[in-house]
From TrEMBL:
InterPro entries documented for this protein: DUF2086 (IPR018655), Oxoglu/Fe-dep_dioxygenase_dom (IPR005123)
GO molecular function: metal ion binding; oxidoreductase activity
Protein name per its UniProtKB record: 2OG-Fe(II) oxygenase
Superkingdom, taxonomy of origin: Bacteria
Signal peptide limits: none
Organism: Spirosoma profusum
Pfam families for the chain: Oxygenase-NA (PF09859)
Keyword terms of this UniProt record: Iron, Metal-binding, Oxidoreductase
Similarity section: Belongs to the iron/ascorbate-dependent oxidoreductase family.
């Protein structure tokens, strides 16, 4: 397994395994219908976002969501610094998520962004970026809580990388239950003959053909 920073730098994403058990996945997916955990529910078709339903967690986050968010952030912060350096961006990130969130909150971005999404047959998620204000962290993560083929068919995770003055590249993943995809929030440094340029990335989900697909989204900047 290649180092996380090499994989992220070369591809703009990485797939992590063995971060949570199948029981963790089950427990987390059960949270979708729990009352009182959420600050906002979005019916995607009402906003032109695609089709499906998602909910933003409220603080305090469920313990496992909070732990995953902290642990991943600590691993990713030094890589985020490296990216910003390559792209000539001045911002550097503390390795402690709480310190970064304090910076977000002081800038008026104080609403939690971790979310849980549920798609049934016919649902999909339009290609998008998750920006919620000026401040953002260059990586985010999606935790796959359902098992393809057993729980649902279709519903591939799709990323599109825009290449300046060239046609875009699509990346399609079908991760196993319990895997985590870490990917570029906004743009990644891509090497050219004249140094690094900003390759804009967007992500979405192809149509679920049958069954139910539930995922957990971990976004590290809070929302205005
Ligand atoms: O359902 C998915 O796999 C994608 C969710 C998503 O767009 C996100 O967590 O930001
Ligand atoms: Fe998203």
């Amino acid at each position: 397994m290649m180092e996380l920073n090499t994989t992220l730098l070369e591809n703009g994403f990485a797939v992590l395994s063995n971060q949570l058990t199948l029981d963790d996945c089950y427990q987390l997916s059960q949270l979708f219908d729990a009352p009182d955990l959420y600050r906002k529910t979005i019916i995607m078709q009402k906003h032109g976002y695609g089709s499906g339903e998602y909910k933003y967690f409220n603080y305090p986050l469920p313990p496992l969501v909070n732990t995953l968010r902290h642990e991943l952030f600590t691993q990713l912060a030094p890589i985020a610094d490296e990216w910003n350096e390559k792209l000539g961006l001045p911002l550097r990130y503390p390795t402690d998520l709480d310190q970064w969130l304090e910076i977000c909150h002081k800038a008026g971005q104080n609403r939690p962004t971790p979310l849980i999404l549920r798609y049934v047959a016919g649902d999909w998620n339009a290609l998008h970026q998750d920006m919620y204000g000026e401040l953002y962290f260059p990586f985010q993560a999606v935790v796959f809580l359902s098992q393809p083929d057993d729980d649902y068919i279709g519903g591939e995770f799709v990323m599109v990388e825009q290449r300046p003055r060239m046609q875009s590249k699509a990346i399609v993943l079908q991760p196993q239950q319990g895997q985590i995809v870490v990917f570029t929030t906004k743009y990644r440094p891509a090497k050219s003959t004249r140094g690094y340029y900003r390759a804009v990335m967007r992500h979405g989900v192809s149509e679920v053909r049958s069954g139910t697909r539930i995922n957990l989204g971990l976004i590290f900047h809070d929302a205005a």
